[in-house]
TrEMBL record:
Belongs to the cytochrome P450 family. InterPro entries: Cyt_P450 (IPR001128), Cyt_P450_sf (IPR036396), Insect_CytP450_Detox (IPR050476). It comes from Microbispora triticiradicis. This is Cytochrome P450. Keywords: Heme, Iron, Metal-binding, Monooxygenase, Oxidoreductase. It comes from the Bacteria. The keyword Iron applies.
Amino acid sequence: MWATAGWAAAALVVVSLPRWLPGRVVALRGWVFTRINGDESIPVPGDLVGVDRFREVYSHPAASGRSRGAALSDLFWYWLSPGPEMHQEHLEEGERYDAVALATRRILSVPRARAEELTRRCVTRALRDGQGRDRRGVVRLRDLTMPAWAEFSYELVFGEECPPYARDLIVGNADDVVTSLKCCGLRHMDRRDRLTAYLVESLPRLRDDVRRELPPGLTDRERALYLQGAFFNTAVVQMSEATAHVLMALAQHPEVQDRARGGDDRYLDQVISETLRLYPLFGIAHRITTGEIPLGEGAAIPAGSVLCFDYPSFHRAGFPDPERFDPGRFAPGHTPVRELNHIPFGMPANRPCPAWRLAPLMMRVAVREILGAYRLDSTAAHTRSLPNRGPCLLTPLGAPRGPGHRMTLLFMRFRDDWENLWRSLVQLVLGTYMVWDARRLRLCERHFADLSGDAIRS
Ligand code: HEM
């Protein structure tokens, strides 16, 4: 009898693993990261700066250091290689940053009709498989949409349709970056370097206006790395993740999906805003203070502090029942958006996203195209970091949904639970290795040490 009870208890533990183990592993990963990386940062909101002063501190002119002086930067530079020193997100303020930011703004300033037409064309292509048939069945939404955004970015920069070879290189690069950022896989520099080499070779084919507008004084390799960082890494990763989040939210809220399919763009915009509130793409954005930030009553944040602005916490503060997905929060007649704790594209006063106007427009068109063709269903977990890449069942509109449909959704749930368990262990091991490797390579620290050395020598 004891043996039977023992087997039953063991079976219970095994069956319940997907419920409790991933959470414990995530906590353990956080602890390991802090041990290796050092607990150097000030969380905002936190004990020192509350939600009420989040915007004020983020917008403060002294919250402007981007990379230099934070151990955390070594990790981001590791993940965003090659060329993190040319990535707009990580350039320090100065002439080079201004030139790069201007070039990005110009490339992104496409007329609305052109952006919409290009999105429609790229998404329509992504909805066909290699044989030209409509995709259907279970897909991973991030994988489904990434080729569309790769083609979009290519055409934006080069002004011509994206050849399949280039699309595959871009997807190979972006997927490798986002997979390693989420610690679901190691980085593969060969995949990323292949794209850099292709871009260096392709510079003479750039759209004339883009070529003229590229930041002056850069080598060909630096130009290629700048384009790779902003347009073939950040743009592709962020757009695929954002679209996957919106589609996942719709797949799990059928009544919202039905209403969104109705054609009212204002409602779709509310869905996008609510999705980006609940699942902001940035977990944390960090800044290194370049001077003291006074907090009043003698308190201050000293120069050289690493501030970690926590988007998910900020986006939950001040909203009733904040975990609930409710696009109605953004409906006309409610609190104006600028008064809400909602900054999916960053703070206007401190290096906000240069695509803050264009990206919602592109998302709206992409989601509309997909909703016009499919019914979406998903029983997989929907979390902010979306490590499962958004499993979703695509059923062509009007096609019957029989018992097989329900079985597929049951199986999706079961598989997702067990994948989640395995993945959390993989993330723990690979994440620990990459944090250690990034500390060993110290890409950011060495870059700035070399610059200071050069300055002293000259
Ligand atoms: C829905 C999609 C997107 C979201 C939610 C998003 C969000 C953000 C946020 C929150 C920041 C600021 C982070 C900080 O304060 O450090 C940022 C910065 C940035 N984003 Fe986006 N982004 C999106 C799409 C894009 C696209 C399409 C591009 C195309 C080039 C892009 C390029 C950049 C760049 C270059 C920066 C750095 C800005 C700077 O430091 O000057 N993003 N993004």
